[in-house]
Amino acid sequence: MSRRGLLLLYTGNGKGKTTAALGLALRAIGHGQKVFMIQFMKGNSNYGEIQASKYLPNFTIIQKGQDKFVKKGNPDPLDIKLAEEGLELAKEVLQKGEHDLVILDEINVSVDFGLLKEEDVLSLINLKKPHTTLVLTGRYATEKLISMADMVSEVREIKHHYEKGVPAQEGIEF
Description:
Layout: E1 7-11, H1 17-30, E2 35-40, H2 48-53, E3 59-64, H3 77-96, E4 101-105, H4 107-112, H5 118-125, E5 133-137, H6 143-148, E6 151-154
């Protein structure tokens, strides 16, 4: 079967966008494919996926963020620098074409928060090799990104355990 790389987008206000992308990663690895994930705006090695990737030789995860929340409208210059580094790394990975699946986690939020420019992300998409599937995650996907995508899934929050005062759970949120 010939492989056609797609542009997939997970957006919306509900929990599960990164989780869905990680599910794709696991499925791809199960078929012997190579996966590269860049996590924008995240910088904590305690995430379960970071720990799991140590056991999966075909799965590379790089975090390009600080271990703190980014302020929308007034980002720390270091947050901008890290996001730009992540974008440059994504360009390199896509141009080399060595990975079957490339995930840019929270890149939509990086654009919305002003860490990256929409036009830079749009031009990045054009670097994708025909066999590579590119996944963009995060709330606030722009209309242009949505229109370019082959598939868009909107994750909508209906109910969340935070509402009952239950804090973030290891293995669920991180």
